[in-house]
Specification:
The chain is of the alpha/beta class. It has two domains: about 80 residues, Chemotaxis Receptor Methyltransferase Cher, domain 1 (Orthogonal Bundle); about 160 residues, 3-Layer(aba) Sandwich (Rossmann fold), CATH 3.40.50. Helices cover about 40% and strands about 20% of the residues. The strands form two sheets. It has a seven-stranded mixed sheet with strand order 6-2-1-7-8-10-9. The protein has a three-stranded antiparallel sheet with strand order 3-5-4. The longest helix is centred in the middle third of the chain and has 21 residues.
Length: about 290
Amino acid sequence: MQAGQNSRSMPVPATQKIREFEWRDQDYKFLSALLHEKTGIVLAEKKKEMMYGRLVRRLRLLKLNSFKDYCAYLQGPSGEKELGFALNSITTNTTSFFREKHHFDFLREEILPPIRREIDRNPRHHVRIWSAGCSSGQEPYSIAMVMRDILGPRGTNSRILATDLDSAIIDTARAGRYDEKICREACLKGAGHMSGGQMEIRSELKNMVSFKQLNLLHDWPMTGKFDVIFCRNVMIYFDQETQDNLVRRFAGHLKAGGFLFVGHSESLLNATDIFTNIGKTTYRLSS
């Protein structure tokens, strides 16, 4: 480069993206390692663009000039608080009502009818379901709708625990307000009331769900066991060893013959000694 030439006027190679903030390989490696240390989540190199997109708003808010500065900020006095915002931004997942419909069909047709008959014999009997990695709440509210349809007044004592790593998304889920168009497309008749372009989930459904912030790699404070656990499209973010450990911990929190639903790209191939595959991504705790 000759003296006086402005480097900003140099042409950008076609393969190089023009970014708002400098985004180096070492920044991605640092943030990926930090994410793994705190949550157990493993991000492949192909997730580099996703991480940039989800964190760029944090840099704007903090008025930082580069991801190098952001990495330094995370190691500074305000780092612990900011880490929470970073993890929430990175781990937010896309979800929808009745996603992977076959699980809800199985719940409706195979799991809940015998429980309904048991409740008829013993009114004190109840069902417990855990939505692990509930995101913005569509999954647990979908479960609640099925329970309401099948159990009716019998399900008064039944409860759904919904947990997620992201504390901010838990607040969104607890509020239970969703875009009206999405709700109409999902045919959520009788699930809530419409106002201002949004649908708010009915109180009777909200009251069936208890939302809690929980890191799946930490201690689980729940007492008692569950009839069903939904943990879908969550384990794909963990390495194989962590996945295997989680599956065995889930087994310890299921009632005898309990059910575990996993995501479409997940399987329990390393847990055939404790779970039996009884359908598409549907498993039952072995006797």
